[in-house]
TrEMBL record:
Domain of life: Eukaryota
Pfam families: GCD14 (PF08704)
GO MF annotations in UniProt: tRNA (adenine(58)-N1)-methyltransferase activity
Compartment annotation: Nucleus
Gene that specifies this protein: TRM61
Protein name: tRNA (adenine(58)-N(1))-methyltransferase catalytic subunit TRM61
Species for this entry: Coemansia pectinata
Positions with a binding annotation for S-adenosyl-L-methionine: E112, D158
Keyword terms of this UniProt record: Methyltransferase, Nucleus, S-adenosyl-L-methionine, Transferase, tRNA processing
Residue numbers spanned by region Disordered: 243-274
CDD domains, per the entry: AdoMet_MTases
EC annotation from Swiss-Prot or TrEMBL: 2.1.1.220
Stretches with biased composition (Polar residues): 252-266
Amino acid sequence: NMLTATVKTGGVLNNKYGSFRHNDMIGLKYGSMVKSHDGKGFVYLLHPTPALWTQVVPHRTQILYLPDISFISMYLDLKPGKVVIESGTGSGSFSHSLARTIAPTGHLYTFEYHELRVETAKKEFIEHNLTDIVTIEHRDVLANGFGKVGIADAVFLDLPAPWDAVAAAKEALRRDTIGRVCSFSPCIEQVQRTALALDEHGFADIRMYECLVKDYEVRTLPMPDIEEAINGQKVNFKLNKNDRKKRKLESGANTPTGENGSSSEVMLSKPTDQARGHTSYLTFAILAPEVKN
């Protein structure tokens, strides 16, 4: 379990593992273990990163997680110095990752129509020293656009009707280089309408992806020599059921491995039974630069 804490002189962190005094944390290196006041529990001090913040951020809205965040950042070609427009801000999970990716010379303009969410996110950006990189504005971009012209390298849309923001996205993108846009939508009907709007406004290379994570179990097993395996099967055929089990256990415990043994090790993997489900569809498109005569 992870949680956030603002460490202050004289402060105390209380959780189910015990009571932890802030004075015991001050001056320690990240990664250090701090024991509770009674010595029974402990916590580790972790360096705050956007990836960790995504796991502990208060959910004011549905948030983006690391698989989608990394995929979007790659396809939008984000790197230090880029200017990005985001709408809406939501809980600010993606905003933190964007800020880290484009720092120190880039800038993020993020828009949110819900005033309370704007104030909460603004407070977090101040606490996390991101105000030099992030500008947040209370604005309904579906009705009023972004109010930006020709400044952005990329636009990210996480809106209920992203097709209504395509024209504003085109206006905000730079025209002296390739502009990129991504729309994050949970429903395929949203993807269809957004793709049509992108095509109507001159965007190209329109693609939709779904990013699903599949976990694999990996283990190492001994692989006996083929001749040894054949001889072993011949012996097993002559034994009764109990003797086979006993021989299997004994051979498993004494199987030699490595170059000097009669068997080697192989690494096997298989997908786990549980797979993480659908989050959203990611629709990407590019806007070619204007050709000047």
